[in-house]
Amino acid sequence: MRKRTAVIIFVLGAVICLYPLVTKVYYNYSMSRQSDEIDEQFQVDSDDQKQRYLQFEEYNRRMTEEQEIKAPAVQVKKDDAADEKMFSDDVIATVKISSLKLHYPVYDEATPENLNRGVSRVAGTSYPVGGRSTNSVLAAHSYSPYHEWFTHIDRLKNGDQVIINNFKETLYYTVYDRVIVTPDQVEAMAVKKGRDILTLLTCTPSGEERLLIYAERTTKDGTTLIPKAPPTVGDRSLWDRMKVLSDSWVIIAAVIVLSVIFIMKLVTHNKTV
Fold it and tell me: What is the DSSP letter of 142?
């Protein structure tokens, strides 16, 4: 009888101890499956996705002129909110970190509600669509009893790859640096002029500081990629300039022809008189 009781107590204890770990594994598996499904819905011929992508690009261009970053309330999660929503339609991308076996949806703006769902873009930073002078900061909680989230991004090494899937394309970033800052040091999340950056953000174990992992845009095989500059009026191609020039010559030629006709008619009229 005592042996049976001891076995029951041991089994119950093992279940209690393993429950958080099993829950984390299941959650990561569930999020990975959901992210795979989201990826399949991206990069399709959808007018809505094209429109939203263009809006993201325009936001990124305007944001570089005057960037106002809102520090997210990322924290150590000792418990989980009862109203947590794991699924949502307001997903703007997915982020995949193969070395950590993570694949999560990315929600827009790191509000407390969105951070309770998972990974979110920090308001005031770039949307994850790439491009010169962009830095998309993706935040998530850490040390949750039942969710992995960004708990172990400190394990990322320089050279590790982070993959972003958005409405239009797949972007590849390579980790190159990290920094620990206080929550008010939002300049650490600012755009780095001329560079295409992705930043992962979470809190340190104490919850008093923030860990930022920087990754720079590369090709799939890790080759450095020079980001394209957004098109501007003074940055036209030779063909565009030739078209503008040809349009001008057409107008000039039309004016000359009309002037010659007018002069000839005037001369003819004078002779007749």
Answer: B
Full-model pTM: 0.74
Cα separation, 114 vs 106, whole angstroms:
9
* Residues 123-159: tens digit of each pLDDT: 999 999 999 999 999 999 998 777 899 999 999 999 9
Name 172's bridge partners.
163, 218
In this structure, the strands spanning 119-121 and 134-139 are antiparallel
- Where do we find the tokens 């809505």? 48
Asked if 32 and 165 count as a contact pair (C-beta separation under 8 A), the reply is no
Length of the chain: 273
* 8: its two tokens: 């029951």
Alpha-helical runs (H) found in the chain: 2-41, 47-63, 112-115, 238-272
Measured distance CA(96)–CA(37) in Å, rounded = 13
Give the pairing of strands 134-139 and 196-203.
parallel
CB 212 within 8 A of CB 154: no
Phi, psi of 61 (to 5 degrees): -65, -45
Spatial distance between the Cα atoms of 106 and 95, rounded to a whole number of angstroms: 7
